[in-house]
Amino acid sequence: MENRINKIYIHYCARKAICTFFLSLIACRAFSQEARPVIAFASDTQEPMWVEKIKLKANHNQQATKMIFKDVLSLHASGFFILGDVVSVGYKVRKWTSIDEYLKQFSHDSIPVYATLGNHELLFKPKIGVKNFQTRFPMYKAAGYTEIIDSTAVILLNSNFSKMTTAEILAQDNWYSNMVEELDKDNAIKFIIVGCHHSPYTNSKIVKPSMSVRQNFLPAFINSKKCVLFLSGHSHNFEHFVANGKHFVVIGGGGGLHQPLYTREVSHDLAATYKPAFHYLVVRRFNDSLQVMSRRLKTDFSGFDNGVAFAVR
Q1: How far apart are CA 62 and CA 95, in angstroms?
Q2: Spatial CA neighbour of 256 closest among 67, 64, 51, 41
Q3: How far apart are CA 151 and CA 255, in angstroms?
Q4: For residue range 183-199, what is the model confidence (pLDDT) as tens digits?
């Protein structure tokens, strides 16, 4: 009888050890996936200008921007990308005061912040605006630049075509096409995200879709086998479009005044019922896909919650 009890006990211990082992494997795998680097994106973090408030309603916009930067910090993102209109008037040094403080906090936590030019950086005195911009983002290059995080390449482009010479536009187009082709051939790169300020698709009543972005940036993006996500701002909304099997997301909720949309869509918005006033995007690689999720600021400003999410591959 005693031998039988011992055998049962040994069998129980063995089963428990095996279960514990497999549970540990599952937990480690889940933790490994959860620990994948987070890439954060935002756009239009500028302080509203008084002239904009004549037509659009303010809503504690500067507080919203401050909370977005703080929430990105709490995620310990591996990189934070801002798609233009970082400030309201680029040439005025005092307009950079709050952003400088946020960038200082990110630097302290060793989180790199990248950006590309919006139209507000170029207002009135574009050369001084670019100089102030490049002081904060020295990695910026006029012909575009690429950053790689966890086998995901992020290409940032300048979509201010009206402020560029024909030679500058051609130089960027050539660099961009060559870079996409090079990344497509690189086995270490799994996905490519392309970002600029002006949106190729939007239903905003305030700003129009950029035909120049469609003509100059979309052919290489659409023809690439690794380009899966095109991000932009300028339209102060969250909008999600799919064209030619590719995802286009507008993330202009970084703090600018919320813009009205056409009720009869110009382009079909997959996020027609999701319109938070303030938001940003987080992207994480998961196996053979990118998990894309919007983080939205609650209407009572009590914090953030997760909004629309989808996968691209």
Answers
A1: 12
A2: 64
A3: 30
A4: 999 999 999 999 999 99
